[in-house]
Each structure stands twice: as C-alpha cells, then as structure tokens.
TrEMBL record, chain A:
Organism phylogeny: Eukaryota, Fungi, Dikarya, Ascomycota, Pezizomycotina
GO CC entries: endosome; plasma membrane
UniProt xrefs under InterPro entries: P-loop_NTPase (IPR027417), Small_GTP-bd (IPR005225), Small_GTPase (IPR001806)
Protein name (database record): Small GTPase superfamily Ras type
NCBIfam families noted in UniProt: small_GTP
Taxonomic source organism: Penicillium bovifimosum
From TrEMBL, chain B:
Protein name: Vacuolar fusion protein MON1
Compositionally biased intervals (Basic and acidic residues): 26-40
A UniProt-annotated Pfam family: Fuz_longin_2
The keyword DNA-binding is assigned to this record: no
GO cellular component term of the entry, any: multivesicular body membrane
All copies of domain FUZ/MON1/HPS1 third Longin, residue ranges: 505-604
Lineage top rank: taxon: Eukaryota
Main function: In complex with CCZ1, is required for multiple vacuole delivery pathways including the cytoplasm to vacuole transport (Cvt), autophagy, pexophagy and endocytosis. The MON1-CCZ1 complex acts at the fusion of vesicles with the vacuole, through its regulation of the SNARE complex during the coordinated priming and docking stages of fusion, and particularly at the stage of tethering/docking.
Length: 218, 615
C-alpha cells in the first residue's frame, strides 16, 4: 500500500508509506547513506553488511504530508545476488548507488537499473546516487566518473540523479525527499491495491520449495 | 569426601599427561628444571644421563630433518628481528621447552621432603602441552633448545602470569592491522616486520596454493610465506603422509586439511595442538556457514584453482573476529560449551512461555541472547542446537560489527554446519534497547546488548519473524521479563568470594557436560585487562590440555608455579577448572572447588538452560 490515511490522522493531512530498496556494488556506501538518512550518523570504518538490514525513517514533505520509508539495505556481495529479487519485488522505489571514484561501480549500477526496469514494479521510482563526493572534493583527481556522464545516463534511463556524500551529509536528505516527491502520494496505484494485507514488503515465494536444500521441514 | 579420594587416585595416573611417544624424553627436562632448584638429586635415569652428558649430539641429528631446517631459518630470523621490540620479553619468556617454563607438583612435593618416587609420578603444569608432539616429530630439537633455557636459571615464574601488565601493548598490538603496501612498495620491510611480530597467525589457502584468507597482512604481502607453507604441506601430501603440525623454535604450526582447503594456525602463545585444531575447525565452519558445503565443493570441483576469496568477500570480518576471540582467549571455545545468563527458574520459564506463545509457524529456532550469553531457547523437539553453530552466530551478532552497525533489523542467510551443512537458513536479528534511560547516548557495551534471534528455513519469512518479535517483546514487557533480563545483566557474573566467602580461588570455570553449557566467575577485577585475561586463559588452556590427556573417568590435576596455582577436576558429570594464589594449600583448593561444585548443583536451573522451550 503506497498511500493511506494514518489511523487517527488529522483531517487534511496525508500519510504515505513506501518500500525502498538500496542496490549497488559492495563498498560503494549503501549502508552509510542509509545510516546518514535514518540516524544522521557516519562511521569511517564500516564492516560489510551481512545479509540485509531493514530500517524505517519518516520524513515530512510539508506541513500536511508525512512519508514513511521502509528501507531494505542489501549487501553488495555477489553471493547475495540471488536474494535481491526478494527485496525489490514489491518496492515502490530504489536507490542504486555507485562510487564516483570507482569506474566499475557505475557499470554494476547500470546492470542493477536494467534488472529493476525489467523485473521490478513497472512504476518503480529509481534514483541513481554517485556516492563519496567528499573524496573528490578533497582531491579532484580521484574522480573516475564525470558527473556529466552519469547524469546523461540517468536522464536517458529516466532516473533521479544525485552525487552524494554520506560522510559530509551532502544531498542525502535531498535524495530521499526527491524520491518521496516523485512517488504517487494521493492515489494508491492499482498494483498496490492487491498488495500485502499489512504494510510492508510482501515476500511471496518466487516458486514453491525454494528453501535451501535439506532445510528443516518441521 | 569424593574429591580427596579421587585426588590420590588421580595422582597415580597422572604420569601420562603427554602422548605416550614423548614419555621417553620429557622426564629429562623436568629433572633439569628440578636440578636448577638444587634439590636432592633424583635416582638417575639412563636417558637423562646420556642427554645431559651429550648436549651437542642432538644438533647433528637435527640437520637430517628437512622441514626443521627450513622453518628454523624462517622463524629464527623472526625472533631475532623482534628481539628488543615490545615482544621480546614475552618471546623470551614463552620459550616452550625451557626449564623455566616448567613448574610442577613434584617440585612442591620435594621441597616438603616427600619421597622421590612420589614426585616422579606427578607431572603437571607444563605450560606448553604440545611438547609431546614436538618431540615426537623432532625428537632432538626440543632437547637442544632446552639447553638454552639453562642459561637463564632462577626464574621459575609461570610464563603467562610472570610479570605485570608491562606487555599490554603486546597483546593489544596483536589485533592491530599490519597496514597496506604503498604504491611504491617500499614499506614492505616494515610491514613484514610488523607481520612477523604477531604472535598468532591464521592462514587459509587452497590445495592449489592460492591464499584465501589470512588474519594479518594481505595475500600479496605474505604470498612468499604462503608458498613456503604450501610447499611443506604438499611435500608430505605427496608422500601420502599428511602433515598435522610442526614446531620451529617457540612457534607451533598446526595444519588442518578439509577438502580443498588447508587451514594453518601459527602460534607463539603456547596452545596445544588440539586447541589450535579446534580453532581451525571453527574457522572452517565459518567458511561453510558462508558458502555451504555443496557450493564449496562445487567451486573447487569445477575449477581447482578457484580464488575462494571472492565468494567469501564480506565475510572476512567474521573470520577475523572469530580468530581474535581465540587470540584473546575464549572459555566457550576451550570448553566447547555455551554460557547462559543466570536468572531464576520461574523467570526463565516465563520467557520460555512467551516464546512458545508467540512462536511463528515457520520458526525453526528462537533465541534470546544477552551479550553472547543465552537467555532462552525455543526449538523443535527433534532438533537440538549445536554449540559450534551458536558460536558462529554469536560471533556474527556480537563480535563482528557487520550486523550491529546496520542499525536496524537484519535478515541473514546463514548455513549452520552442525545442523545441516548443505543448505541455508534465514536468520532474523533484532537488538533490544533495555536501558531505562533512553537519553544516555553512551554506546551499549557488548555485554549489555540483548538480541532476539529467530531462525526460519523460509527465506521469505522476514515479516513473519518481525511480527513474532513484536509480540514476543510485548509479552516479555507485560510479564516483566525484560526487566528481569536487565537486572541479571547488571548483576553480572558472581565473584568467587560471593559464592564461597573467603575462598582462595580467584577464578573458576565449570562445565556441565550433560548440558554442554558452562558457567564462570567474573573476570573483574583481577582479570579485566586483555593481557591478564589472556594469561588466565593460557593457564586454563594448559590445565585443560593436561587433564584431558589422562585416560581415567575421574581426573584431578593440580599445578603450582610461583605466580599461580591451578586446579582441574573432571568427572563424568562436570569439568571444573580454577586458579588461585601460588602456594595455596591443596586442601583449601579442594575444599573451595567442591563448595563451588555444590553451589552449581544447587543453582543448576538458574545457571543452565535445561531442556529449554520445546515444540
């Protein structure tokens, strides 16, 4: 359910809830972006995310509009890739992250965008985030991907685009706000009408019997 | 009293605390150490005499040992480079074969004027318990190093407890990163020196010789050494004679081969082969937990030269935190058992009931864990939990930062090799903030954090688990269980003097064999620092290795050194280990030990989870 009236909300106020998934190569800063957005914190040395983390954050778009994000922060390692559809299957929006100092990370981001456009909700709002802007501000020769190139790609693919820094908190709030503004706040799209009975990502099995071989059947 | 009887009985069987092969050579060293004390000479033994008279003999034989020569050069360089550095004191002190590292009941006994025959039958407290294996492999090498030790007599301190915390930096430095090669590569020497200064190394490589993971330094830096190790291992493999371990100076190498993986532990911390092997086993389990056995096998069967570090990417921190917990010393690993939070039986029952009441359909295991201590478990009747699996989970949840730093709820595919090494389960983890004062922004320490862990075979069950967690927390809030958990955490572990007022014991470990659980006294104040705790654990390691080398049902082991007395007592029901002041009266020790054993039996249902909630 993308949009609904919060129970007991004042008349004239809107409350919408959206599912968001973060994707991208490992070590580009997905978790750091989320942590900046949700807790306004930053760790210089972060361990890799294990599995996926689920967090929520509520923002006010204006006096009468509140948006709650349910965020899946996924691990970027290759071995978790097969689990990704579970997280993006019912997502309303996605942030695909790359590292502006690592050329290969944009290629990976592009392949995520392609996968989302092919397999996720047709109305999914996708934002492309080029993270680690602080590194380039310090020493410009570290930049591996020109802003214009990424921007051109984003425009062509119909994505929101920001260069961000989770470390110095540049464009993080802006990124999520822009996504919230682009999401349909007033009408719940037809695809959302058949969504889960409770708010949240509907983790329907892809196919029966996908559990790990030999797992307990009790 | 039982204990007293078994003590006497035990003493008669103590003789073979080391593997039989080593019997011939070990007495010599002990007698040398005794002779340092200038006590009345023991009846001479042929082996002793010939060795003492012919010190140079062994060295010539040494040259015949190909691998010894190889590793001697390597490691010899190491220790000489390190000498003078912060590690030199320890390196010198921890020479495993030097007589000063020995302290035994026999010395105590002899000073009291007991019979020579008696003292000869008691052999205890040899800090380096792998001496037996060393000598079995390299018979004469040990004897020749022994002669070095004689140059520095007078010190009879137990090496691990000898001095004060002067080498705090040493053990803390153990966990610091070696650093990375810079672009010019001109800092290689510095890095290698730092790498060699570490007292403990773990290296995992593939049978094809590819480095997969090392605790210190990256593959590029130490590839030469990995090559050497690979050569040594494959040399023996070609002869169809698998290498299990070898020594170079005071350094012990232990090799564990599992499928296409070689796991190598290199330790200068005087651990026994068995202990090191258990640690390697746990690292291997961590790899299985990340990849599952079939996919590991598949990777290598498709391409034997597979670079496994790629599929393992992101799990390095789990291996490292596991390795570091071994280096710091882990009672849980030593005893292969779990620790539970001590709470009243009725409170545990209330938590069990809450778990059962809120149990989700697809739940396999549900755990409530407070800082690595189990509070409660819910499980299906036909499946028990494997301590090894839980060790991996607790390491992931409490020691490694990856899960906690996520700051939210986690959903993690994980293979529990003890449960089923061929498939993944899915684990929901959520941390509870049980502090009353929300405004205190201080970091929650590891011991304070409470995690709810819900495991399901269904990878889509996240929201089901989340709903269970919500109603579980609600239940526990209503019944006051959360408050009880917090009280128990705040209370901490009891001091030995809380249990037995005025006891001579400073610390103890008690393992209930039937429950595969252990309990222990508080580390504080005496063993709070990393170094002191490490020394405590080394004493326990030695005690554990010595006592388990005996082939009797009831075993008692008493060991005395200038800095501490340790005492072990193993029965079919429990294992008890404790540490006390040096020169503690043996009767006082035994009395305290049995009082604590009684206390544990009285408090059994508070200290241990017996049965747990079963559905």
């Amino acid at each position: 359910m993308a949009s609904r009236q919060a129970p007991g909300a004042r008349p004239g106020t809107r409350f919408a809830q959206f599912k968001l998934v973060l994707l991208g190569e490992s070590a580009v800063g997905k978790s750091s972006l989320v942590l900046r957005f949700v807790k306004d914190q930053f760790d210089d040395y972060r361990e890799s995310t294990i599995g996926a983390a689920f967090l929520t954050q509520t923002i006010s778009l204006d006096d009468s509009t509140t948006v709650k994000f349910e965020i899946w922060d996924t691990a970027g390692q290759e071995r978790y890739k097969s689990l990704a559809p579970m997280y993006y299957r019912n997502a309303n929006c996605a942030v695909v992250v790359y590292d502006i100092t690592q050329a290969a990370s944009l290629d990976k981001a592009k392949s995520w965008v392609k996968e989302l456009q092919r397999q996720a909700n047709e109305n999914i709002v996708i934002a492309l985030a080029g993270n680690k802007l602080d590194l380039v501000t310090e020493s410009p020769d570290k930049r591996a991907i020109p802003e214009a190139d990424a921007e051109a790609y984003a425009r062509e693919a119909g994505l929101l685009f920001f260069e961000t820094s989770a470390k110095s908190s540049i464009n993080v709030k802006e990124l999520f706000t822009a996504i919230a503004k682009k999401l349909p706040l007033d009408q719940a799209g037809p695809r959302n009408m058949r969504a889960a009975p409770r708010p949240g990502v509907d983790l329907r099995p892809e196919a029966p019997g996908t559990q790990g071989a030999g797992a307990c059947n009790c | 009293m039982d204990l007293q009887d078994t003590d006497n009985d035990g003493q008669q069987h103590v003789v073979s605390k080391q593997p039989p092969l080593s019997k011939a050579s070990t007495p010599d060293k002990d007698e040398r150490s005794e002779s340092l004390e200038e006590r009345p000479p023991l009846p001479p033994r042929p082996t002793t005499l010939s060795l003492l008279n012919d010190e140079t003999g062994p060295r010539t034989t040494l040259q015949a040992e190909a691998t010894t020569a190889l590793s001697r050069t390597d490691v010899g360089i190491q220790s000489s480079e390190v000498a003078g550095g912060p590690f030199s004191t320890l390196a010198a002190r921890s020479l495993p074969h030097s007589p000063k590292a020995k302290a035994s009941l026999s010395q105590l006994a002899s000073s009291r004027g007991s019979e020579a025959g008696d003292s000869a039958s008691i052999r205890s407290s040899v800090p380096n318990t792998e001496a037996g294996d060393v000598e079995a492999l390299f018979m004469d090498f040990a004897a020749s190093t022994g002669s070095h030790g004689q140059a520095a007599p007078g010190l009879l301190d137990f090496p691990e407890f000898a001095a004060d915390d002067i080498d705090d930096d040493g053990i803390i430095g153990e966990f610091e990163a070696v650093g990375e090669l810079n672009e010019e590569g001109d800092n290689e020497d510095v890095l290698l020196q730092r790498w060699k200064a570490k007292r403990k190394h773990y290296i995992i490589l593939s049978a094809a010789g590819k480095p997969i993971w090392t605790r210190h330094g990256d593959g590029g830096l130490i590839s030469g050494y990995v090559g050497v190790i690979q050569t040594i291992i494959s040399f023996y493999e070609d002869a169809d004679d698998h290498l299990r371990g070898f020594s170079a100076g005071d350094t012990r190498f232990v090799v564990l081969t599992r499928g296409s993986l070689h796991l190598v532990a290199i330790s200068r911390m005087m651990e026994s082969d068995n202990q090191l092997r258990l640690q390697l086993e746990a690292l291997y389990m961590q790899i299985l937990s990340t990849l599952t056995l079939p996919s590991l096998t598949h990777l290598f069967s498709v391409r034997p030269s597979t670079d496994l570090s790629r599929p393992l990417q992101g799990s390095e921190s789990l291996l490292s935190s596991l390795a570091d917990s071994f280096t710091r010393g882990s009672p849980s690993t030593l005893l292969s058992a779990l620790e539970c939070l001590k709470i009243r039986k009725q409170h545990r029952q209330a938590i069990n009931n809450a778990l059962l009441k809120t149990k989700a359909n697809s739940l396999l295991y549900g755990l409530i864990v407070a800082g690595g201590r189990l509070v409660s478990v819910v499980r299906p009747k036909k499946h028990s939990l494997h301590p090894g699996d839980l060790q991996l989970l607790f390491n992931m949840i409490f020691e490694a930062d990856g899960v906690k730093a996520g700051g939210g709820e986690s959903w993690i595919p994980v293979c529990l090799p003890g449960f089923n090494s061929s498939g993944y389960l899915y684990m929901y983890v959520s941390f509870l903030d049980i502090r009353n004062d929300i405004e205190s922004s201080a970091e929650i320490t590891k011991d304070e954090s409470v995690a709810i862990v819900l495991i399901s075979p269904d990878k889509e069950a996240f929201f089901e688990m989340q709903a269970m967690r919500d109603s579980l927390v609600e239940q526990m809030e209503k019944s006051g269980s959360l408050r009880e958990i917090k009280t128990a955490i705040d209370k901490g572990r009891p001091a030995t003097t809380d249990i037995v007022p005025g006891t001579v014991l400073h610390h103890f470990l008690y393992k209930s064999r039937a429950n595969v659980q252990f309990t222990m006294s508080s580390y504080a104040p005496e063993f709070s620092s990393v170094t002191r705790r490490r020394r405590l654990m080394s004493m326990y390691n030695n005690l554990h290795a010595s006592i388990h080398a005996k082939n009797t049902h009831v075993k008692v082991h008493h060991c005395v050194s200038r800095s501490a007395t340790s005492f072990g007592w193993v029965t079919p029901v429990f294992e008890f280990y404790c540490i006390a002041e040096p020169n503690t009266n043996r009767n006082a020790l035994a009395q305290s030990a049995s009082k604590i054993a009684q206390w544990v039996q009285r408090e059994e249902e508070r200290l241990f989870i017996i049965g747990g909630a079963v559905f």
